[in-house]
Specification:
Strand order of the largest sheet: 1-2-5-6
Structural class: alpha/beta
Largest sheet: 4 strands, parallel
Distance between the termini: 30 Å
Shape: globular
Helix content: 25-40%
Number of strands: 6
Low-confidence stretches: none
Order of helices and strands: EHEEEHEHEH
Number of helices: 4
Amino acid sequence: GETRLAVVSGRPLGPDGVNALFDLPFTQQVTDWDLGGHVEEVAGPAGTEDGGTVGLIEMIERPVITLRGVEALAANRGARRIRSLNLTHNQLGNDAVRALARSPHLIRLERLDFRDGNAPKGRVWQELVERFGE
């Protein structure tokens, strides 16, 4: 009876992984898809001029879905069920935006989280905003 799916992947989902998710019986009722990448803080020592060390923290994004995976999602008839979609922090660009904006299947999408951790630009981004709102 769950309507929410969150994917945590060691390897980002490509088209085969996305299509396999849509084919699983338990995803037939899922309307809230969280395919957002994960941001991890990685600490490591760094040397200083006087021989000491200082702890540096680096933010690393771990994508959950690839561009081809987003294209497969947008092209899959099962996407008609999606009402909420999180694709943040996947290092996606304009090609992913284009696929989403032009998808004939994302007809029930009410909420799309995309901008954080991705790099949409210019007119293509406007196309997405016009279709789904800010």
